[in-house]
Design a protein that fits this description.
The structure is a single chain. With 683 residues, the protein is of the alpha/beta class. 40% of the residues lie in helices and 18% in strands. The strands form 4 sheets. A 7-stranded parallel β-sheet has the order 11-12-10-13-14-9-15, sandwiched between helices. A 6-stranded parallel β-sheet has the order 16-21-20-17-19-18, sandwiched between helices. Strands 2-4-5-7-6 form a 5-stranded mixed beta barrel. The longest helix is centred in the first third of the chain and has 32 residues. It is globular. The two termini are 29 Å apart. The structure holds adenosine-5'-diphosphate and magnesium ion.
């Protein structure tokens, strides 16, 4: 069987299971090979019942004491049985697994593994898995993969399916010549794939992941080279000069543009009026004021008779951009119609928006990626701005060219402006954005007070709440960030839903607390964000959906729970949501880890408000290869590679791409063609 085959063709995989795999982006066998575990667990040593505590995940060797009982509630059955070792007894419960009644019989001695929870106020072993003693001893010696799951698709199923592919397709031929594999110091491809799914130990696994990161970078850099070539050939079909409206905005703004903003704006106007289509990256730290620069560019485009589109990574950010742009154009009496196209619109609203875009009535169009993916036709799209997200891959560029072509009938590439706050060292930026011209905005508007930071332990929570209350009483607003949406069986960290309830309880009617997270409907999310912006909400408890771009200058406090779970670059992005106005901003990093390294890492944030510096310090401290638990940020949409952790592989790939042979390139492209992720997602 070939790796390009659909997963459906495997024995035992029906429509339903393949649909579930599809949900997590796995279509081909090759996709499955690249669907690598996000973590590994080690099974713990056996515990005695007398030692176990609620909240722990434990394994106990026990004997079932009583005939199990089955309780029924609507849509729920609870099977419960008592078990004992020589130190005590514990109840075990299984939800919705009535058939276990036949297995769990009195006298049965097994190792039971699961989380200790509370049921009717008694400690119970929830949903334990069952093993023979010898079987468990063996398991203890390997790393058990934790795959990113979706409802209905469990680890066991994924493991089995992966094994099936190993059995059929291995070994996989390496596209790299063996001599190059050796020279670069990589693991062979086949070995790397096998290792990454079932490593014997961590060191080996890291090496395997490195290999896959190298491949990912290499494929990426090849397309960067192609794009660069295309850029050099792309003639400017949409000549755009500076316009009166843009000048009017600059004059009327309540602040003076910084030099960095002014220089960037000049770069953009030079590009758009020049011989070739613009492909420019604006790299500027959070709060450096990128949005206004983008708006000026868009106003120029529209006043030169074209349309401009701005794409944001989240609905929340798109809605906010649209609202701000509308308000500003109205205030400065610039007659340009701005339209928001987002998933939260009703079908009718969407239709109307699309009609206005197609007729050209809409000058500025703001939306998410759906803008280019859905069937949106523009009359004459000449400028595309992407905010806080990735540049376009080859495919997206083709789509864009088609979309901008409707009127002229010929396919032309619009000007592209990429706005990013990704704080990466310049050497890496030049590699990753090799196809783009770069404007760096390394200057913050000078009205800003630097954010005051503190890294504290859980004992500080009470004080933090008091501080938040004080700030809100003074008319300011606050964010609290939790790593999770809801309580989870797997990890123990704060979650938005319970935390919101908790804060409501603590603050009572004095402080208006609401929540925001990725599982809410787009419409609800926008509503909450609008209300927060309108100051109808004082404290917003949120996941990292607010990480990028959101701008509510009245917020002064940012409190981040389980800060140790985030990468520094991401924390810096999150922190950038406060201190955007003239009032003093505060950021409280709540560190619940007892690990000294974590504290040291977080302290870097304490000492610096400079994103570029933070990212490189983080890199130094962690050293390459330390990737688990934390992905620095989702800003570069790589599957395995991480810009910070795998900087060594990025450099290696950037050297190799200069000498790669045509045959090797062809073989790599064949692999990439089977990779649904690479084909669907913007890099
Ligand atoms: P980012 O670069 O993070 O996207 P924004 O464009 O959202 O930053 O700008 C952050 C805030 O700073 C906004 O409220 C904006 O109005 C304000 N701002 C932008 N430029 C200046 C400036 N030159 N002086 C003062 N405030 C500015
Ligand atoms: Mg922004």
């Amino acid at each position: 069987m070939k790796l390009s085959e659909n997963i459906k063709n495997l024995k035992g995989i029906g429509e339903k299971t393949s649909a579930l795999f599809g949900k997590v982006g796995v279509f081909s066998l090759w996709d499955l090979m690249l669907y690598v575990p996000r973590d590994f667990v080690r099974y713990p040593e056996l515990s005695k019942i007398s030692e176990i505590k609620v909240g722990q995940t434990v394994a106990v060797a026990v004997t079932v004491q009583t005939e199990p009982t089955l309780a029924k509630a609507p849509r729920l059955t609870i099977l419960s049985a008592k078990a004992a070792d020589d130190t005590g007894t514990i109840r075990m419960v299984w939800f919705n697994m009535p058939y276990m009644k036949k297995t769990v019989i009195p006298g049965l001695t097994r190792v039971f593994y699961g989380k200790v929870g509370l049921y009717r106020n008694q400690p119970v072993l929830e949903h334990p898995k069952m093993f023979g003693k010898e079987e468990y001893d063996k398991l203890k010696n390997v790393l058990e993969p934790v795959y990113p799951l979706t409802k209905g698709l469990g680890t066991d199923r994924i493991k089995k399916t992966v094994q099936q592919v190993f059995d059929i397709c291995f070994p996989i031929k390496d596209y790299l010549p063996e001599s190059d594999v050796k020279k670069i110091g990589l693991m062979g491809l086949s070995e790397a794939l096998q290792t990454v799914h079932s490593p014997a130990e961590e060191e080996i696994m890291k090496k395997a992941r490195k290999r896959l990161a190298f491949d990912e970078y290499l494929a990426f850099l090849i397309s960067v080279r192609e794009m660069k070539e295309e850029n050099l050939n792309a003639v400017n079909d949409f000549p755009i000069g500076e316009s009166g409206g843009a000048r009017k905005i600059i004059e009327k703004l309540p602040y003076k543009l910084t030099n960095a903003q002014m220089n960037t704006y000049c770069d953009i106007v030079n590009d758009m009026s020049g011989k070739r289509a613009m492909n420019r990256l604006v790299q500027g730290d959070v709060g450096s004021g990128k949005t206004i620069v983008a708006l000026l560019a868009m106003v120029c485009a529209v006043e030169n008779g074209y349309q401009a589109a701005m794409m944001a990574p989240t609905e929340v950010l798109a809605a906010q951009h649209a609202a701000k742009i509308k308000a500003m154009l109205e205030e400065y009496e610039i007659p340009i119609k701005t339209v928001l196209l987002s998933g939260s619109l009703t079908a009718k609203e969407k239709r109307e928006a699309k009609a206005e875009i197609a007729s050209g009535e809409a000058g500025i169009v703001v939306g998410t990626q759906a803008l280019i993916q859905e069937g949106v036709e523009f009359k004459n799209l000449a400028l595309v701005v992407t905010d806080e997200q990735h540049r376009f891959g080859v495919k997206q560029r083709e789509t864009l060219a088609e979309k901008s072509a409707a009127q002229s009938g010929k396919s032309s590439t619009p000007h592209v402006l990429v706005m990013s706050a990704t704080p990466i060292p310049r050497t890496l930026a030049i590699i990753l954005y090799g196809d783009l011209d770069i404007s760096v905005m390394n200057e913050l508007p000078n009205a800003r007070l630097p954010i005051k930071n503190c890294v504290v332990g859980p004992e500080f929570r009470k004080k933090a709440y008091e501080f938040i209350e004080k700030e809100t009483a003074a008319g300011h607003q606050a964010y609290v960030i939790c790593p999770q949406v809801e309580e989870s069986e797997v990890t123990e960290s704060e979650n938005v839903i319970d935390y919101t309830e908790k804060l409501k309880g603590i603050f009572g009617s004095r402080v208006r607390v609401e929540m925001l997270h990725g599982k809410m409907k787009p419409k609800e999310k926008n509503k909450i964000m609008e209300r927060f912006a309108a100051h109808e909400i004082d404290v917003l408890v949120s996941t990292t959906v607010i990480e990028v771009g959101v701008d509510v200058p009245n917020s002064t406090v940012m409190m981040i729970e389980n800060a140790e779970k985030f990468g520094l670059a991401q924390l810096h992005q999150i922190r950038g949501r406060v201190g955007r106005g003239s009032a003093q901003g505060y950021c409280i990093f709540l560190n619940t880890s007892k690990n000294k390294e974590d504290n040291k890492r977080l302290k870097i944030l304490n000492e610096s408000n400079d994103g570029f510096k933070i990212a490189s310090e983080d890199l130094k401290l962690r050293g390459p290869g330390d990737f688990f638990g934390i992905r620095q940020s989702g800003l570069m949409n790589f599957r395995i590679a991480d810009v910070y952790n795998d900087a060594d592989m990025l450099k290696a790939a950037s050297e190799y791409v200069k000498v790669i042979s045509d045959d090797t390139k062809k073989a790599l492209n064949e692999l990439a063609a089977m990779d649904s992720h690479a084909n669907q997602v913007t890099l």
